[in-house]
Amino acid sequence: MEKERHVLVVFPHPDDEAFGVSGTIALHVKNGTPITYACLTLGEMGRNMGNPPFANRETLPEIRKKELQDVACILGIEDLRLMGFRDKTIEFEEENKLINLVLSMIKELNPSLIISFYPGYSVHPDHDACGAAVVHAVAKLPEKERPKLHCVAFSKNCVAELGEADIINDVSTVSNIKLAAIKAHRSQTEQMVKEMTEKLANNDPQVIAWINNERFWTYKWT
């Protein structure tokens, strides 16, 4: 993997980083690249409360905050930024507020790579709004000064409309770190981890491929 100057990761919820990019983050950390992860919310409107439940609507925000901090330690992220927005409201935030927030981080950090969601192809309204803010922030920079933008997409129509992923990172050498990151989001992933562990024990090819490979699309500027 190419060594980057600085990687800025922008997602709306705790655990967004774990499923799709934690292996990539771990590889960048191993390369000595500084990582900044800006998480917009605490995911306090998440439906899962653990299995069996150990959280409730009042305690979930602090639990998810602690889970995210634990994941930052697991992945080696030294600059974790909790941005303080409310879960399930990112799509309703004033657009320029989000854009300027991302733009200020770009100007502060001078990243060579930004990772976020591909707007319109990431299923959740918060995901799409977050990705759109990142895209618009990068677009405000002169073309020669823009960092690379690697986007996560997983809607059913993403391949049909965007084509196959432009980048596939082999993260098999850090798959144990990726699994630890997913497990650390215990309130949201406990049942999934149980099922995934059983499938891994049975050498399920789809689960193995998902764990070992992370896919990104470069943003298609129009």
Automatic annotation (TrEMBL):
**What cofactor is needed?**
Zn(2+)
Alphabetized GO MF terms: hydrolase activity, acting on carbon-nitrogen (but not peptide) bonds, in linear amides
Q: Which reaction does it catalyse?
A: (S)-malyl N-acetyl-alpha-D-glucosaminide + H2O = (S)-malyl alpha-D-glucosaminide + acetate
**Entries under Pfam families matching the protein:** PIG-L
Q: Which PANTHER family match?
A: N-ACETYL-ALPHA-D-GLUCOSAMINYL L-MALATE DEACETYLASE 2-RELATED, N-ACETYLGLUCOSAMINYL-PHOSPHATIDYLINOSITOL DE-N-ACETYLASE-RELATED
Protein name per Swiss-Prot or TrEMBL: Bacillithiol biosynthesis deacetylase BshB2
